[in-house]
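User: quick one
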Amino acid sequence: MNIIVEDWGLIEYTQGFRRQRDLVEKVQMGAPDHLIFCEHPAVLTLGRMTNPASLLYQRHDIEERGVKITMVDRGGDVTLHAPGQLIIYPIFNLNNHGKDLKVYMEKLEEVAVDLLKNFGILAISISGQRGVFVGKDKIISIGVGVRKWVTYHGLGININTDLSLFNLIKPCGLNVRMTSMQKLKGHEVSMKEVKAKTIELFRNNF
Amino acid sequence: MTNIILPELGEGITKATIACWHAKLGESVVVGQEICEAVTDKASFVIEAPAAGKLGSILVDEGQEGSVGAVLGTIE
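Assistant: Done. Structure below.
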């Protein structure tokens, strides 16, 4: 399947969201599937179902650490994005991929698990939970939205993320510990290599 | 009156929770307008207005679960 790859570099979350929405419209109108890479400056995104208890510090204290807080028009709880976390937004037209949300999610998780396997990390997806885990620690967050069967949002892979930022929140409202490829490997991991492998896996799986 | 239906989302997905209604009761909507958002355990799906008119009723509130094929609300 023809997939166009774009790398948006470091982009503010809200700006990235606007660009995603524009792209979703184009794909709805017949443009090819797109695979977007980017990173976001440190930001907490709060969904409509965010439990206030998921923020473990006062707003002011969080912003003092250089982390923005942004309300987003989605369900779900709080999520953290920061440099070193590779964001992957597949903008795919599921009308051409079987129109099945479950199959799409399973394929995403498969790509995520295979990706980590290529870097010597054994990860699993857990039934009923979003994301991919190494043992009990979450390494990849997954959050997908669909409009007219075109997908947006996607994966957040902690590659070289500053994991101490996750101490500000209960990620996704859960008492889950986050990990990163850097932590598991004991050294920084090349984002370029992760991107190259990701493109290969998406092209093989979709 | 037109029913707003929770569509088929995929094999084995029988239910979804309404995360939010983007339109308020009595508000005018146009065809294709994003009207509410359904979430499964793994993803969220935006449901659009199937007809133009006013949002006449909300039968599945925010936080409540609906079955695939269920009437979530109506447009009058």
